[in-house]
TrEMBL record:
GO terms for cellular component: cytosol. Residues 32-197 form the Gcp-like domain. GO terms for biological process: tRNA threonylcarbamoyladenosine modification. This is tRNA threonylcarbamoyladenosine biosynthesis protein TsaB. It comes from Desulfatibacillum alkenivorans DSM 16219. InterPro entries: ATPase_NBD, Gcp-like_dom, T6A_TsaB.
């Protein structure tokens, strides 16, 4: 199975093509004013590097939030356009689940958090179990104080939200707080692709029309124009 995955949920973007778990080509970059065009250029670049054409994709993956409103809108719109044009399934991957998944194997509860700006984080808790990683708290936007009040057990913290408020977390929880390596605080686009490939195989993907973003919080951002898919 060949899957094209895209992530635009935070300040940067990532695109990867994988075949049965093997990375064929990958590109990552930082968001610019022409973020939408940069994403589609990256899609074309990874396809060219992999020696593939869009019609050879078996499925698409895209981070569906929570995250940047502008970034999510660009990613979701681009994935919808591609999935519709190619008539292939698409799977929306939770950004927080992708962060927690990258920390596996881990025996501790995982507190995944992204910087939501305005003094808040997007956060959710995940726990490893016999059937894989389970989400044990809803994705929500909250202040660091509210977030940490809800954490009572020894946990692993991951994501740029955890890194941003690390000193506060350590002051509140002391030795109960463990932190993932810095390089895991950014969404790994390969993990996104792997999550989606498994979901597509299990029949959990959706059509382009049914793909939706998880915004959680309303945005005051100006909506960007979305270029046509390749």
């Amino acid at each position: 199975m060949i899957v094209l995955a895209m992530d635009t949920a935070a300040l940067g973007f990532g695109v990867v093509v994988v075949e049965d778990g093997r990375v064929l080509a990958r590109e990552q970059g930082e968001r610019s004013r022409s973020h939408a065009r940069s994403l589609m250029d990256a899609v074309q670049n990874v396809l060219n590097e992999a020696g593939l054409k869009p019609v050879q994709m078996d499925g698409l993956a895209v981070t569906c939030g929570p995250g940047s409103f502008t970034g999510l809108r660009i990613g979701i719109a681009s994935a919808k356009g591609l999935a519709s044009a190619l008539n292939i399934p698409v799977y929306g991957v939770s950004t927080l689940y992708a962060l927690a998944k990258a920390a596996q194997p881990c025996n501790l509860p995982v507190q995944a958090a992204m910087d939501a700006r305005k003094g808040q984080v997007y956060a959710a808790e995940f726990r490893p179990g016999d059937n894989g990683l389970a989400q044990t708290s809803p994705e929500s936007a909250k202040s660091p104080e509210q977030w940490i009040r809800e954490v009572s057990e020894e946990s692993l913290f991951i994501g740029d939200g955890a890194a941003l408020y690390r000193e506060f977390i350590e002051a509140e929880l002391g030795g109960k707080a463990h932190f993932a390596p810095e390089d895991l605080n950014r969404i790994d686009i390969t993990v996104v692709a792997d999550i989606a490939a498994e979901a597509i195989k299990e029949g959990k993907a959706c059509s382009a029309a049914d793909l939706k973003a998880t915004y959680i919080r309303k945005s005051d951002a100006k909506l960007p124009k979305i270029p046509q898919a390749v």
